[in-house]
UniProtKB/TrEMBL annotation:
Residues 2-148 form the NADPH-dependent FMN reductase-like domain. It comes from Paractinoplanes lichenicola. It comes from the Bacteria. This is NAD(P)H-dependent oxidoreductase. Gene3D superfamilies: 3.40.50.360. It holds the Pfam family FMN_red.
Length: 187
């Protein structure tokens, strides 16, 4: 069964991302075409990148890196839930991504962004990062506005339109994850 990790990309206290990621998981868990798991960066307590050897070498020395690598390696694809901070993704998510290399390769990714302009700029930055890591990013995306998809900028209230957009992200992420299986097996 295809496994998709839903990665919660914020560690900020009071983060809106927790409600968004749980919504993504709840919608995804109703599907039968893949298994989905919510991965919260807070559960991994990754320090600022502290590996002496570049991740592309695959020679991890720190226990937290080895644990993180095993988790990411267990997935066939990802849905990144990202806030937009200063026209980009969160430092915590970028740091978590930068710890690894081959564990990301030849997998698919969809994106759910949130922020003042729906997290669009954060998603665009993640697409650039994905390309370098040989992650196939899907076209569909969910962009959630703090002004219209949240009450008082803090209580998440997604519209039916957003759930339809999420369905497209999940469809494409699962399809591409399955399609890349032969590439992963040959790598």
């Amino acid at each position: 069964m295809t496994k998709i990790g839903i990665i919660l990309g914020s560690t900020r206290p009071g983060r809106n991302g927790e409600a968004v990621a749980k919504w993504v998981y709840d919608v995804a868990a109703k599907r039968t075409d893949a298994e989905f798991e919510l991965v919260d960066l807070l559960d991994y307590n990754l320090p600022h990148l502290d590996e002496a050897i570049p991740p592309s070498m695959g020679q991890y020395s720190q226990p937290h890196t080895i644990e993180w690598a095993k988790k990411i390696d267990s997935f066939d694809g990802f849905v990144f839930v990202t806030p937009e901070y200063n026209h980009s993704t969160s430092g915590a998510l970028k740091n978590a991504i930068d710890f690894l290399f081959k564990e990301w390769n030849n997998k698919a990714a969809g994106f759910v962004g949130y922020g003042s302009v729906g997290g669009a700029r954060a998603v665009e930055h993640l697409r650039l990062i994905a390309g370098e890591l040989m992650i196939a990013d899907v076209r569909a995306q969910v962009l959630l506005s703090l002004a219209t998809d949240f009450e008082n900028y803090s209580t998440f209230l997604p519209s039916e339109r957003q759930e339809q957009a999420l369905g497209a992200v999940l469809d494409q992420t699962v399809q591409w994850s399955k399609a890349l299986e032969t590439v992963r097996k040959g790598a």
